[in-house]
């Protein structure tokens, strides 16, 4: 495997930090050309110095002077704003772009990378949720490979390599169930921010952790799987698997089911995407099946976790409805974290936005961006965070 020059968009977030650790373990195989961050200027500066990157973008332009003063004496070029990210990912010096920005904000830079024909290691699920059909069409047009980084979709991607020409009967997306898996609806209704952020298995950023607690994260993954693997919603199943050892499964037409297993560690799917098709060594915890003893499964409860039903409804409706759902959810999660709404208020805001939305059956990319903006504004009004 020749050395790959990569861009890590969102290097200061959870996925970005773990990607940096993968690079740290394989300096002979990966070189970081570009990193980007939003608010964590201190970490961005230390990453740039440690990995001696060529280019840094601080998306929060108010922090540009701080980052530039720290890095320019080391001959590291510093830029500000999202347009700079979009311009720099097109550089001939970059082989692969890891898109780890949080939320809809990652769409524009992912599109730029795809249009430049880059291989995209996709960790930003909202890109395919909001504009899946359009994004996959661009990837085909520009011959840009998309390799999934989400643990579930990476698992599916790996399972499919066992039978690349076989027909998929069903995709089984596994879910931990989050912190409220055993709670009653009444208990969940009064859940606090601290309780919702206490995920039993994964250590992630606040937004994705709340999405896991509502199970909206699994709803987003259903939509992402639909576009990544070209299967209809009727062939995507969600199963609760509290141990989080099986990361997802693929069932084939003959009834055989192939699964990918491992301890919860996002460095595994990150490294698989960055090194694909090679498998590299990783200093992670290995499975001990005898110590594991047993694993369990159960069906999800959509009465306690209505976000799953909303996501399936958005997928079946199609058009700009998944974008509407995603935009409303981003605002509603922020409102919950700010104490502006209750836990079930999150899905309440999403449902009201979907019910009152201006539906467009065949949106173009401009419509997607306009839909996101108008829905976010409406959701902010509902939550009282204008």
Automatic annotation (TrEMBL):
The keyword Transmembrane is annotated on this UniProt entry: no
Keyword terms, alphabetized: Isoprene biosynthesis, Magnesium, Manganese, Metal-binding, NADP, Oxidoreductase
Domain 1-deoxy-D-xylulose 5-phosphate reductoisomerase N-terminal residues, every copy: 6-132
Named cofactor requirement(s): Mg(2+); Mn(2+)
Enzyme class, spelled out: oxidoreductase
GO molecular function: 1-deoxy-D-xylulose-5-phosphate reductoisomerase activity; manganese ion binding; NADPH binding
Family annotation (InterPro entries): DXP_reductoisomerase, DXP_reductoisomerase_C, DXP_reductoisomerase_N, DXPR_C, DXPR_C_sf, NAD(P)-bd_dom_sf
Residue positions binding Mn(2+): 150, 152, 221
Residue ranges of every copy of the DXP reductoisomerase C-terminal domain listed in the record: 261-374
Position of the signal peptide: none
Protein name from the UniProt record: 1-deoxy-D-xylulose 5-phosphate reductoisomerase
């Amino acid at each position: 495997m020749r050395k790959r020059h990569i861009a890590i968009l969102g290097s200061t977030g959870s996925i970005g930090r773990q990607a940096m650790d993968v690079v740290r373990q394989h300096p002979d195989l990966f070189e970081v050309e570009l990193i980007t961050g939003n608010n964590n200027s201190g970490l961005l500066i230390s990453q740039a110095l440690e990995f001696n990157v060529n280019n840094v973008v601080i998306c929060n332009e108010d922090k540009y002077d701080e980052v530039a003063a720290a890095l320019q004496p080391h001959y590291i070029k510093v830029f500000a704003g999202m347009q700079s990210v979009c311009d720099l990912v097109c550089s001939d010096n970059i082989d692969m772009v890891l898109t780890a920005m949080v939320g809809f904000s990652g769409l524009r830079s992912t599109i730029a990378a795809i249009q430049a024909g880059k291989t995209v290691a996709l960790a930003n699920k909202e890109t395919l949720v909001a504009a899946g059909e359009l994004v996959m069409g661009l990837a085909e047009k520009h011959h840009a490979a998309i390799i999934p980084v989400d643990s579930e979709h990476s698992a599916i991607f790996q399972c499919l390599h066992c039978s690349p020409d076989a027909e998929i009967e069903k995709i089984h997306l596994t879910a931990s169930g989050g912190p409220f898996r055993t709670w009653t609806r009444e208990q969940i209704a009064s859940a606090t921010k601290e309780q919702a952020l206490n995920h039993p298995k994964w250590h992630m950023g606040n937004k994705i952790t709340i999405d896991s607690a509502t199970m909206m994260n699994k709803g987003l993954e259903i939509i992402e799987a639909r576009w990544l693997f070209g299967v209809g919603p009727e062939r995507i199943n969600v199963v609760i698997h509290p141990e989080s050892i099986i990361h997802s499964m693929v069932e084939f037409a003959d009834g055989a089911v192939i699964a990918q297993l491992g301890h919860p560690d996002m460095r595994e799917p990150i490294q698989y995407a960055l090194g694909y098709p090679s498998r590299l060594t990783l200093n992670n915890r290995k499975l001990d099946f005898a110590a594991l003893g047993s694993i369990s499964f159960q069906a999800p409860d959509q009465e306690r976790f209505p976000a799953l039903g909303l996501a399936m409804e958005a997928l079946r409706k199609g058009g700009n409805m998944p974008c509407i759902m995603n935009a409303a959810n981003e605002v509603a999660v922020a409102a919950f974290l700010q104490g502006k709404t209750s836990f079930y208020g999150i899905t309440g805001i999403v449902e009201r936005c979907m019910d009152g939305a201006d539906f467009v059956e065949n949106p173009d990319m401009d419509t997607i961006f306009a839909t996101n903006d108008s829905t976010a504004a409406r959701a902010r009004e509902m939550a009282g965070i204008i």
